[in-house]
Description:
Blueprint: H1 2-7, H2 13-21, H3 26-38, H4 44-57, H5 61-92, H6 97-100, H7 120-132, H8 138-157, H9 163-186
Helix pairs in contact: 3-8, 4-5, 5-7, 5-9, 7-8, 7-9
Amino acid sequence: MRLKSIFYDWGGVNEALLLHFLAESPVASWLAWLVSAVGSYWVAPLVLGAMAWRVSRTHDARRAGLISCQIRRFILAGMAASMLTWLLKGALNLPRPFSILGMAISPIGDLPTTGSFPSGHSVYVAVLAATLWPLASARMRLGITVFVIAVGWSRLALAMHFPADVVAGWLLGLGCAELSRCVIRRHL
């Protein structure tokens, strides 16, 4: 229990940060929901389709090869990250913030009250960011960074995750993306 207090609860800072970032207005809640929806792994098929379309439209063979390599990286990292996220969520079975704080959330359907750690949305956007990074200009990299942070904020604002869940998700996603980069580079 002491380890949980240090590494997950951060001595109370984890919950205090969550309370700071909770959406307090209908506009903030709506914006958080929208960002969360766009930053969901359910969007992955659209990302893959857009990347494949870009390969078919480019006349630069080197650029097409780089995009194709990043598609393979995205698929491999996404599969590894999804599996590890699922295993961690099931093994740790940590409660969601809204269930701990007794918040009334009225979604369409039922939300799981456990499985908070790590944030699957954060894992996904970290994999996506790492995949797009080599293809992006400096301006686009800034946009990617803002998007990753915005998705993390949205999960806090909706009380779906604690900050520790989001940070762990980012680290897990980046780790899987780096591992997939090494595997793909070795097999090219």
